[in-house]
Amino acid sequence: MTVKTDVDLSSVMEGLDGLVKLRTSLSRSMAVAGGKVLRDEAKERAPVKSGRLKGAIYLAYKDGRSTDDEVVYSISWNAKVAPHGHLIEFGHAVVRGGKAGKGGVNIGWAPAKPFLRPAYDAALPRAQQAMIERGRERLPELLRDLYTPADEDFV
After folding, report:
1. Are residues 84 and 115 in contact, defined by beta-carbon separation less than 8 angstroms?
2. Collapsing DSSP states into helix, strand and coil, what is residue 123?
3. DSSP class per residue in 8-77
4. Which helix (H) or strand (E) element contains residue 93?
């Protein structure tokens, strides 16, 4: 016995498309929640002289590196505001009398005072927890918005 039927799957396909958008929105929301924890920890750990480095630390979405399967954010500092941030994070040579190799004398090494790397290590469990909590809040909102028909559908 053969049974033939015509089934319109367009609404099913639209629903699946909605789930892809939901996944991206959920991922971004969760990543921001975790990123804020890491960013704030890095700000707390940044050495304070003028305060410019602390104020220059940011969290940013990386559009060029993100895909449908992965969202990428970075935590860094604005090098225009705090151009010497890398010297603090990684350490640097101390030179007197000009530039190194151009009449200057390398007299030593200023040790690193890292703030980004230790912030990640210290705050990762809190960041993961913040991401989970944000996902638990945001998923029901997104599902409700996805599956709640517009008012005109009831007219």
Report:
1. no
2. helix
3. --HHHHHHHHHHHHHHHHHHHHHHHHHHHHHHHHHHHHS--SSSHHHHHEEEEE-TTT--SS---EEEEE
4. strand 92-96
For 44-62, what is each residue's pLDDT tens digit?
Answer: 999 987 789 999 999 999 9
Q: Which residues contact 14 (CB under 8 A, 6 or more apart)?
A: none
Enter the tokens of residue 74.
């970075």
- The residue behind tokens 């997104």 is 142
Rounded to two decimals, the pTM is 0.78
Dist CA 95 CA 109 (whole Å): 9
Q: Give first-to-last CA distance, the chain, whole Å.
A: 41
Q: How far is CA 100 from the centre of its chain?
A: 37
Question: Residue 111 carries which DSSP code?
Answer: P
Convert the pLDDT of each residue in 99-129 to its tens digit.
Answer: 666 666 778 889 999 999 999 999 999 999 9
Which whole-number Å values give the CA distances from 20 to 17, 30, 32, 60, in the listed order?
5, 15, 19, 22
- Tokens 């039927």 correspond to 5
Please name the amino acid found at residue 76. S
Looking at the chain, the number of H-run helices and the number of E-run strands are 4, 5
